Amino acid sequence: MASLSRQLYLAAYDISDDRRRIGALKLLRAYATGGQKSVHEVWLTEGDKRSVLADMAYILDDGDRFLLLRLDPRSQTRVIGRGQVAADPDYFYVG
Fold first, then answer.
1. Which of 8, 12, 32, 62 could join 40 via S-S bond, C-beta 3.0 to 4.6 A?
2. What is the pTM of this model?
3. Cα–Cα distance measured from residue 17 to residue 60, given in angstroms and rounded to the nearest whole number
4. What is the pLDDT of residues 54-90, one digit of tens each?
């Protein structure tokens, strides 16, 4: 049985075509807790990760790029400049 624990990832894409870029954005926003333009923080189970990678492979074309990097949630956040606090809702529906 697969673990249902979620891991924190950084998902980023560089897609030139508007239609594919919108598809990637919609896909990642379903899992995102925060992000800027084409970079998002996502919490994924192993099953979610497999789904995101498979769906993104379907969206991407030659010349497009996608990065999914697992982050350590214990690490300290370092920022340059001024950011805004993420506006997370009180709950998330995953289903």
1. 32
2. 0.71
3. 10
4. 999 999 999 999 999 998 877 776 767 776 666 666 6
Name the domain count of the chain.
1
Binding-site positions for Mg(2+): 14
Bridge-partner residues for 9, per DSSP? 42, 70
Position 36 in a domain: yes
- Residue list, annotated binding site: 14
Distance (Å, rounded) from C-alpha 6 to C-alpha 2? Answer: 11
Which CATH number do you get for residue 66? Answer: 3.30.70.240
Q: CA nearest 10: which of 92, 69, 51?
A: 69
C-alpha to C-alpha distance for 84 and 65, rounded to whole angstroms: 27
